[in-house]
Amino acid sequence: MPRSTPAPRTGRPRSAAADAAILAATREALVELGWSRLTLGDVALRAGVAKTTLYRRWPGKNELVVDAVAELFDELELPDRGSLAADIEGVVLRFAAILARPEARSGLMAVVAESTLDATLRERIRTSIVERQKRLVREGKARAQRRGELPPDPDPEAADRSVDLIFDVVAGAVVHRSLVSAGPVDEVWVRDLTALLLAGLGSGPAGR
Amino acid sequence: MPRSTPAPRTGRPRSAAADAAILAATREALVELGWSRLTLGDVALRAGVAKTTLYRRWPGKNELVVDAVAELFDELELPDRGSLAADIEGVVLRFAAILARPEARSGLMAVVAESTLDATLRERIRTSIVERQKRLVREGKARAQRRGELPPDPDPEAADRSVDLIFDVVAGAVVHRSLVSAGPVDEVWVRDLTALLLAGLGSGPAGR
DNA sequence: ATGGTTACGCTACGACTCGTAGCGAAAGCC
DNA sequence: GGCTTTCGCTACGAGTCGTAGCGTAACCAT
């Protein structure tokens, strides 16, 4: 989904294969070069298309990288493992696996950095990535409430706030752990995180 | 601290004022241009020094920005407000205030993104920023344990894991909330976050 | 088929930034 | 005063940027 095309009814249609090739080439370049040394000319070369074709579809490097990275997160799913704790551990491990890939690491943080001065880009990130993955939190929460592991929400407004908060805490913690602290997101860490989320600080990381 | 100078005993000494001017100019340029459009030539011009002087002190843009941003977080302190919950709320609000500044937003995320392909830069970030601010968690935790709000740690190894986890969860949540989700870190959100940290998911955001 | 319309590949362009080299002058220690 | 290092300045080749112009290719409507 490069951009919202007004869908012209006539003329030569845009090649869908070119889209896929460009996004794949972008991820490949992210792995080898990182964000700063990635150039659109290089991406065009890898994808086997002309540089001008690239500029016809995306406004610039930032938007291209957002679309290339967003595809990575669409494969996320919430496995039903029978309990809230197990569900959380499962999805966090999958999320961490995606974040371990270099194209996700360098691409995601770079566009977030760029979005601080570009409201349009920020909105693109929000709709393409953030809002899209909140479905995981909603699903996991509803599942836990059906199981009786979580109390029902007092009102819809509080429910929304709860979803937003959980999403920021979980996603933020995993991102910070793997990208900033540069520590492993392994089973030990995930178990500690889940314990903290479920029971709070009082229990401590060793208690379980 | 541009870099570890071997401290030559002879010759003209490096101007300390130039260091400060360069770092301040870097932050100023980050505000106006963001990371990608920031050029070292422009920073040198703003700081009133020659471009060559800049290259003599820092290897490149990444290292310069790390140092410029690291200074911002040194002003963080942990106010003693009498309870663990109040302490957390206080430091989170201060942290968010720093993250609200454009020079911190764009600079921090950009260098984190760059560090994914540069182990040296990653280490520089870890020592200059991350490890330095973990003191807040250690202090807050020790204080709460003295008050009896938190149980003592079973062993030093578990204590370290606990500090790392709390730091990633708190810092990650605040960063994710303000930079990725682009939501406000206000008193309402901080209260919900603190409640989640202390009591876990069971209580919900409305319970307090 | 034929003509209309749009996408495509290709080439070329001026403007800009990069990081480095070389120079003479300035600033501090012996 | 003599030595050493930093400083400001200028200049340089290399590389990237985003755009314009052109002829060709692909699809739709008649």
From TrEMBL, chains A, B:
Originating species: Streptomyces fragilis
The molecule here is called: TetR/AcrR family transcriptional regulator
Biased composition range(s): Basic and acidic residues: 140-150
PANTHER family hit by this protein: HTH-TYPE TRANSCRIPTIONAL REGULATOR RUTR, TRANSCRIPTIONAL REGULATORY PROTEIN (PROBABLY TETR-FAMILY)-RELATED
Region of interest called Disordered, as start-end residue ranges on this chain: 140-159
The answer to whether the entry has keyword Cell division is no
DNA-binding region(s) in UniProt? 39-58
Q: Which UniProt keywords apply?
A: DNA-binding, Transcription, Transcription regulation
